[in-house]
Amino acid sequence: MPVPGHDCVVSVFAQSRSAVSEAASVRLAWAGSQGSGFTIQPKLYVLAVGISAYKNPGFRLDYPAKDARDFCAAFARQKTRLYRDVEVRLLTDAEATRDAVLEGLEWLEKQATAKDVAVLFLAGHGINDEVGAYFYLPWNADLDRVKTTMIPSTDFQATLAKLPGKTLFFLDSCHSGNVLKVKLRGETDPNRFINELSSAENGVVVFSASTGRQASQESPQWGNGAFTKAVVEGLDGKADFQHTGRVTLNMLDLYISERVKVLTGGTQAPTTAKPNTVQDFPIAIGNRP
What we know:
By secondary structure, the chain is of the alpha/beta class.
């Protein structure tokens, strides 16, 4: 198995048809030659979906489409800073049909390599059905046809778990009001989905806008949802608490948590789920001095 030319952690799993073991991990210290010191920067792939104006006008939200655009712009600014290139696929409102989102997942799976970083951003409505299965509502979602018009968590999980490089998932789909909960007699709670994705064998880092049954808040005062406002600020450098010029995974986690609490008066608490096999790593170079 090839290992990178720097200090790293190697984790091994045993897997059967029905279960996956805990990770057996070993920390490796690189003692080889540093060679020329030349390092190829990773490439970044971003799939962002944000839906404000649904086909069903009763589902309308204010900022998810703008959130997705601003999220993409923040990562696009990282081109030639931390990443040699940034490729973005943005789907908003009527563009974000069920088929288009699934095609976007296929694109992400085909493009990202082991040397790259893949990012998925979802903003809009999400629901759980009667048995707790989580579904994301694309533009053309119909509450009377859940399985044929919505996207189950298993579709996202199947793609993200296959991605060979570093994988980040930003989830802001807990806006749903009572109309959605009453219709399906369930709760809007993606926790099970998040826990499965962030298990050690899947290796996905998940940033979620809120805990369990909390609603994600948006406001014209911020011009975004609170979560995306914090993410964009953090990526642009405000999460660089140590003034090193870099924003790492753990720095962004801390900044989002504190910033959202301030914006919402402590009524919304974002969470981050990170597998214990994933070490802290830089994800952005900040703007600020």
